[in-house]
C-alpha cells in the first residue's frame, strides 16, 4: 500500500437537535441549520466513508481494507475485525439537548442487533455559556428504575449534570446513561455502531408533531451503574496527554506548536488525527496535506515516519492498541 495522509468525504447527518456550527465554525458543506453530526470516518452500513484525496480517491474505506488488509489497519486489527472498520469518528453540534440515552455493550448488541456495542468518548471543542452534559446517575441513592420517571422537572435530581469547559473530555462506556447538552460542539470517537436507546427526549416533537420513540425496556437492560463501568482496562491518566485508554481505542491530545516527527514504526494500527484547534500540515512519503480545524485524516498502519508542522494546533490522536 502506498501510504499517504488519507482524507474522507464527511457524511453529514440531520438531527432534530442539530445546528449550524458544523457549517459556520467547522466549514462543512451543510445546507441546513439542523445538521447534528459530521461522520468523518465511518464503516457503518449505508454510511461508508469514501476517500476524497490522493491516489485512492473515490475508493471506500471497505475497499481499502479489502485491498490492503493489515497494511491499512494493522495486523491485529485485521485479524480481529476483518473487513470492518472498527471506529466511527465524528464532529457533533448540539443546538439543543440530545436525548438522555444509553448504549448496549457488545454482548447485548450482538444478541439483539448483530452489531458491536457502543463505547465512546467526547472532547469539548467549544461551548456556549453554561452548557452542560449528563454523565451518569446523580448518586448511589438514585435507583435505576427512576429512569422511567424522568420529567423536565426532576431530571437533575436523577442524573448527574456537569458544566463543560473547552478541552474537557468525557469517557462514556457502554451502559452509562448520558446526554450532550445544548450549546456543545464536540469531537466524538466511538465503536462502529449506531445503536442508541432513548430514555427521555425532553418532551419535544418533530415537524409533524410526533414524539420520537423511547426504548425503556432495552434501556433498563442496557444500563450499568457507574461503579460497575470501569472495565475493558480503562485507565484515566490526568497527568498525561491520554484522554481515554480502553480495549476499543486509545486517544491522546497533542498540543503542537512546531515541526515534529512522529515515529509509528512499532504501532500495529492505523492512526487518526482530528484537528480540534488551529491547523497543521501532515507529510507522509512526500505527500503533504493541510488539515484545518474540524478536519480529520487517517494515517495507514504501514506508515513509519510522519511529519507534522504547525505554529499552533491541538490534535486528537486515535489508534487501537
TrEMBL record:
Taxonomic source organism: Nonlabens xylanidelens
Cofactor(s) the record lists: Zn(2+)
Signal peptide span: none
Gene3D superfamilies on file: Jelly Rolls (2.60.120.10)
InterPro entries reported in the protein's UniProt record: Carb_Metab_Reg_Kinase/Isom (IPR051804), Man6P_isomerase_Firm_short (IPR014628), MPI_cupin_dom (IPR049071), PMI_typeI_cat (IPR046457), RmlC-like_jellyroll (IPR014710), RmlC_Cupin_sf (IPR011051)
The organism's place on the tree of life at top rank: Bacteria
Protein name per the record: Phosphohexomutase
Residues reported to bind Zn(2+): 103, 120, 178
Record key words, sorted: Isomerase, Metal-binding, Zinc
Domain Mannose-6-phosphate isomerase cupin: 242-319
Cofactor note: Binds 1 zinc ion per subunit.
Residues forming the catalytic site: 198
GO molecular function, one term: mannose-6-phosphate isomerase activity
Amino acid at each position: 500500500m502506498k501510504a499517504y495522509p488519507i482524507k474522507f468525504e464527511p457524511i453529514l447527518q440531520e438531527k432534530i437537535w442539530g445546528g449550524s456550527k458544523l457549517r459556520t465554525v467547522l466549514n462543512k458543506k451543510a445546507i441546513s441549520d439542523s445538521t447534528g453530526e459530521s461522520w468523518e470516518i465511518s464503516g457503518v452500513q449505508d454510511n461508508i466513508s469514501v476517500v476524497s484525496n490522493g491516489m485512492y480517491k473515490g475508493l471506500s474505506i471497505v475497499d481499502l481494507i479489502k485491498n490492503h488488509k493489515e497494511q491499512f489497519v494493522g495486523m491485529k486489527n485485521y485479524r480481529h475485525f476483518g473487513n470492518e472498520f472498527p471506529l466511527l469518528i465524528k464532529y457533533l453540534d448540539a443546538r439543543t439537548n440530545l436525548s438522555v440515552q444509553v448504549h448496549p455493550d457488545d454482548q447485548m448488541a450482538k444478541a439483539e442487533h448483530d452489531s458491536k456495542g457502543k463505547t465512546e468518548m467526547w472532547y469539548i471543542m467549544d461551548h456556549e455559556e453554561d452548557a452542560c452534559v449528563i454523565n451518569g446517575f446523580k448518586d448511589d441513592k438514585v435507583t435505576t428504575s427512576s429512569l422511567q420517571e424522568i420529567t423536565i422537572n426532576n431530571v437533575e435530581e436523577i442524573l448527574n449534570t456537569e458544566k463543560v469547559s473547552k478541552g474537557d473530555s468525557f469517557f462514556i462506556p457502554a451502559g452509562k446513561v448520558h446526554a450532550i447538552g445544548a450549546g456543545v460542539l464536540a469531537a466524538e470517537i466511538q465503536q462502529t455502531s449506531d445503536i442508541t436507546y432513548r430514555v427521555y427526549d425532553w418532551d419535544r416533537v418533530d415537524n409533524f408533531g410526533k414524539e420520537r420513540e423511547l426504548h425503556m425496556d432495552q434501556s433498563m437492560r442496557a444500563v450499568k451503574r457507574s461503579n460497575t463501568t470501569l472495565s475493558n482496562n480503562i485507565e484515566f491518566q490526568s497527568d498525561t496527554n491520554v484522554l481515554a485508554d480502553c480495549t476499543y481505542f486509545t486517544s491522546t491530545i497533542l498540543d503542537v506548536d512546531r515541526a515534529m516527527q512522529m515515529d509509528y514504526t512499532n504501532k500495529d494500527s492505523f492512526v487518526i488525527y482530528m484537528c480540534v484547534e488551529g491547523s497543521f500540515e501532515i507529510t507522509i512519503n512526500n505527500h503533504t496535506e493541510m488539515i484545518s480545524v474540524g478536519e480529520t485524516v487517517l494515517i495507514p498502519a504501514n506508515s513509519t515516519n510522519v511529519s507534522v508542522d504547525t505554529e499552533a494546533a491541538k490534535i486528537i490522536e486515535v489508534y487501537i492498541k
